[in-house]
Structure formats: structure tokens, C-alpha cells
């Protein structure tokens, strides 16, 4: 019948419409997929994927490898830390009136020519501080930072694991700067108020270096570890290079309280960059390239289960005690120079404030050069694989300590 034929023709027509519509939809989808150039490599796709993520406020941070950005942050952070904590070692020289107790020993013409070459140096040398602190009290105050610093070392590592290195390091830097700004008020109130401030500064800043090591444990490939850590640590001697001349300038031109205020501004600026650019691990970094993340994680490796620390074996290990003794000796020399050199330059050798700042910066300047060259040399030797890694590190440690002992013996007999 005609009705059946019409129904069949209508069904065939609808079938053709559906087939054609589906075919056109598939064709349009394939054309959209084919718009991606065939020669785009994996790196370009990664960069396109990266552009879809959160962008940085600093264009340079999107182009430089993330581990180098982190190293630069630690470098500037260490430099700011040194100017914050060591400013007091120079400030105490101009804060305290010491003219009635100590007579300079450089009374011959050969010593007088260098430190007093100009009216500016002579006038600066005649300025005396407003506080009356004995030498023994000055020693106690200079040591207050270390008394607090020794207490929270292990706590810093625990906090880094629990809260994350970004929070712990940033908070430690902030509290250290805030306490340092309170220095002028505390010192004028009471020497024991200043002791409390310096003691608390030691407590909060002691968490910084354990946190630094914890963060680099997830960021530094083994073949780059020495170089990256060395670049961070260059900020320590560079901080002293900046600290002593800056403190001498501030004391001579603006007054000794500004030795405490200006480093706090440095830390505030650094803290903004730290919040924006630092992350606990490559996996948490929103802008890191996948190639860099894979390179870091494959180099370091991942451990699914946290191993238990064998504290008994650690505390009875001869290599561990060798490291402790070596670290103690190194820190003793560094802190001795940092705390006593400005006082020795002024009260024993009689140098002016400005000359004192410049001459006190010489040891950390040479330390920075040595640290930089030795780190690159150590990494090059490790990559060459001709000498065992342990003997490379032993060799550099022995060379460094031998040079320090030799210089000490020469200075003692001048």
C-alpha cells in the first residue's frame, strides 16, 4: 500500500539525515583536533599547559628554573639574616662608652697613618656611646644569641616536617627581624631586656638552617647539591661584607639605632618574594616545568615509608662526632670574628668607625670567594668520578682547616 511505502521512504530519509549529521559532527571534531601543529614537541605542550596554570607576578620567575629561584631566595634570605643578627656585634662598639677603660695600642706613626687618614675618621673615632656596660656584661650580651640558638636546632627540623619549610622559614625570618627592631628600646631599658631580646632571636632563628636542609632534600639533585647549597651559603659572608660597612655608615650618619631598623626593612621586602615564589617541593610548585620536576624527582628518588632514625647508632658513630667537632670548630672561628673583630679594631687597635667597618668586612669577603670556587671545584671532581666522593669532601675540609690554623698561628705571633 501507498501508506506503507511513504512510511518506509520517510524512515530512510530520517536515517540519512542522522547519518549525515553524525558524519559532519565527527568531521568538525577531527578538524578542531588537527588545528594543533604536528611539529609541536613535548616541551611546547608543557609550556602551553604551564600557561594555563597560575602565573607569577615576576616574569623572570616563569623563565628561570624553579630550583634556581629557590636558591636565590635562600641566598638573599641568608644575607638579610646576617645583617639582622650580626648588626648588634658592631652596634655594641658604638653603643657603649669605653673611653675610660681601654687605651689603643697603635700609638706609633706606622699604625696611625692608616686609620686616621682624614678629619672624618678622626671625628668619628672621638664619638662615644651612651651606655655604661662592663666588658663582662658585653660578653654576656654577645653570647645571648647563641644561648637561645642551641636550644631549638632539632625542633626546627621537626617543625619543617610537620608544617612545611615555607611556613617555618618565613616565620623564623619575620620573628627574628621584629625582635631585632626592638633592640634600641630594650638596650636603653635594661641590659637584661636586651639579653632577653637576643636570646629570643636565637630561639626563633635556630630553626632556619634545619629548615633549609629539609627543603633542599626535596629540591636539590645530587649532582647539583654542592653548588646550590654553596650559592645559598655565599649569602652568609656576603651579609657580613654588607653588614660591617653598612653598620659603620649608619652609626656615623644616622645613629646606632638604625643598625637595628634598616635590616628589618630588608627582611620585609624579602618576605614578600618568599611568599610568592617559594614552595616546599617541586610537586607543590604551580609553575614548574614538568621536565624540571621529573628531573629533580628522578634524581633524588622517592621513599614511600619514612625510615626510623637510629638515634643510638647516630650518637655512637665516629663520623657523626667528627662532623660535630669540625662544625663546632668552624663555627667557633666564624662567631669569634663576627663578635670580637669590631671591638678589637676599635678598642685595641684604635681604628675609627668607618675604617673599622671596612676592615672587619675583609675576612668574610675572602670567605665568600673561597666558598664559591671550592663548591664548583668539588662538583666538577664529583662529576668526573675519578676520586671517591668522600675523599673529595675530606680533602676540602682538611685544606680549609689547615689554612685557618696557619693564619691563626701567624696572627698570634705578629
Describe the secondary structure blueprint for this structure.
Layout: H1 2-33, H2 42-51, H3 66-85, H4 87-95, H5 109-112, H6 119-126, H7 135-149, H8 153-163, H9 165-181, H10 183-189, H11 191-205, H12 208-219, H13 225-233, H14 235-253, H15 258-277, H16 290-300, H17 311-315, H18 318-347, H19 353-360, H20 362-384, H21 389-412
Describe this structure in words.
This protein has 414 residues and is mostly helical. The protein is 75% helix and 0% strand. The chain is built from 21 helices and no strands. It has helices at residues 2-33, 42-51, 66-85, 87-95, 109-112, 119-126, 135-149, 153-163, 165-181, 183-189, 191-205, 208-219, 225-233, 235-253, 258-277, 290-300, 311-315, 318-347, 353-360, 362-384, 389-412. Helix 7 packs parallel to helix 11 (191-205), helix 8 (153-163) packs across helix 9 (165-181) and helix 20 runs antiparallel to helix 21 (389-412). The protein is globular. The model is unreliable at 2-54 and 102-126 (pLDDT under 50).
Strand content: under 5%
| Average pLDDT number | 78
The radius of gyration computed from the alpha-carbon positions, rounded to a whole number of angstroms, is 31 Å
Structural class: mainly alpha
Index terms:
414 residues, mainly alpha, disordered N terminus
